[in-house]
Known about the structure:
The structure holds two protein chains of two kinds.
Chain A: H1 5-40, H2 50-65, H3 68-74, H4 76-83, H5 89-113, H6 117-125, H7 130-164, H8 172-182, H9 186-214
Helix pairs in contact in A: 1-5, 1-7, 1-8, 2-5, 4-5, 5-7, 6-7, 7-9, 8-9
Chain B: E1 2-13, E2 16-28, E3 33-37, H1 44-51, E4 59-64, E5 67-68, H2 74-81, E6 84-87, H3 99-109, H4 114-127, H5 143-156, E7 161-165, H6 173-190, E8 193-198, H7 201-207, E9 210-215, E10 218-224, H8 225-230, H9 235-244, E11 266-275, H10 283-290, E12 295-306, E13 309-319, H11 322-333, E14 338-346
Parallel strand pairs in B: 3-8, 3-9, 6-7, 7-8
Antiparallel strand pairs in B: 1-2, 1-4, 4-5, 9-10, 11-13, 11-14, 12-13
Amino acid sequence: MSADMIPLLSKALGETVYMVAVSMVIASVIGVPLGVLLHTTGKGQILAAPAFNRVLGSIVNAIRSIPFIILMVAIIPLTRAIVGSAIGTTAAMVPLVIASIPFIGRQVETSLKEVPYGLIEAAQSMGATPFQIIWKVLLPESLASITAQLTTVIISLVGESAMAGAIGGGGLGDLAIRYGYQRFRPEVMIATVVILIVLVQLVQFIGNTLARKLDKK
Amino acid sequence: MIKLSHIEKTYDSPAGPVAALKGIDLEIARGEIFGIIGLSGAGKSTLVRCINMLERPTAGQVFVDGKELTAMDAAELRKTRKDIGMIFQHFNLLSSATVYENIAFPLKLSGMPANKIRQKVEPLLKLVGLEAKASQYPSQLSGGQKQRVGIARALASEPKVLLCDEATSALDPQTTKAILELIRAINRKLQLTVVVITHEMQVIKDICDKVAVIDQGVIAEQGSVIDIFTNPQQPITKEFISVLLSNDLPAAFRGGRISAEPIEDAYLLVRLTFIGESADDPVLAGMIRKFPDVETTMLFGNLDQIRATPFGRMIVGLTGPHERVQAALEYLRTKELKEEVIGYVRRHDTTAV
């Protein structure tokens, strides 16, 4: 292992963690409420609005059906408008956030569906408002499940962030391609892959532990 | 306390509208325990959900404590619902909250400060006997304990009415008994009006003052529990009661050999029902003394209680000269009991089995 590898790897790891973490936070801030909306406006739910629900669902499906690499290129003008540039670690976060929002939305929706309707009925019988039902029943009751689902989103973000590296996003994926592939340094390739494996294992482990701790069922 | 007038509820289904309730009229007085019994699908759960408007009736009016719920907007309705507690068959507790937090839940919804919540929740924990379980989660509790949490939670906002939707149907018989006793005790202590939905006549018999039998979306029969038990009119009511009080003849007399006309060497089978005070009267002893030539055989006997009222049922066989048997029957008719002549059956006719 050559001496320049350690700083290269640690810089790339830092960029990957930065991209994934910030994208995840921003995407969750929008994606979790989106999931709540997808669930609660559904048929027979507390904010039932079937037409709105169908439109929202179609938009979510449309974004989710675009392969990430195409989405990344397609929204370059938007990225430029938001970040000021289409290249770089920060610029790579725009497509990462946009791809993750509908994914998180669907995952959260799935978690909320697991909350028995009887609990909502019980809260209604106590005079709870729809907002209280969301905040004090739906979200706390599905917190363990949402945690597990978001762990999956983080892991897919790690993979997508490697792809984002291809358009100058930096990070482990970028390092693997530029050094490992283009400069014929297989040891860099192997080191990145090992780091990615460890990173994913770690995220999954933390996610599982947290979900188990939160689950009182 | 609760008045339902002409309640109708129709659901839309792919196969067209389905009528769950077809014009229900009910009045429930303050402080009474009112049972609503029906088979599954009879509409009883829909009916109780109309009382707190978890289901909005398609037509008709709902009044609770003089206020018309069917005329309220969403905000008014939420406020009024705090006066109507509800417990459920599957308890519907928050699995992510402790026993304490579950009971505190309705108070938190009302924005009560934590120290005041504590003052309310602690006596409730004591009332339902769960002081030691305050910091446990529902998954650590038995079914009966879960329902106790449900009851404490329903009582937290000091409601005037408690709705029980099949509250004991998921519990074993011993636990059911304990939960019913708790509901009864709360009803007495807090002067709470209680509506009990069930498919079990035993529940009605154990705690209700009045009962309505609901069948296919209409009320088939209603009245005081003792009247319904001793004098059921509708086939559906008789069916419910027969689960508890067997009206069958002793095995030896079954099999269609009962004759309406007097026959040789036969008993006249008479079913006697004693209610209340008359259950203590020595009516039979009196008859035997008065008609020593009529031989009286006791074939079946049972003394039960419906709430505080003693309730005895027996089948006796009378033999003797025809006119004396008729006179004995006349004597019974002057007494405070219900008698029903079943018919003549040959003595020692065990071949009928």
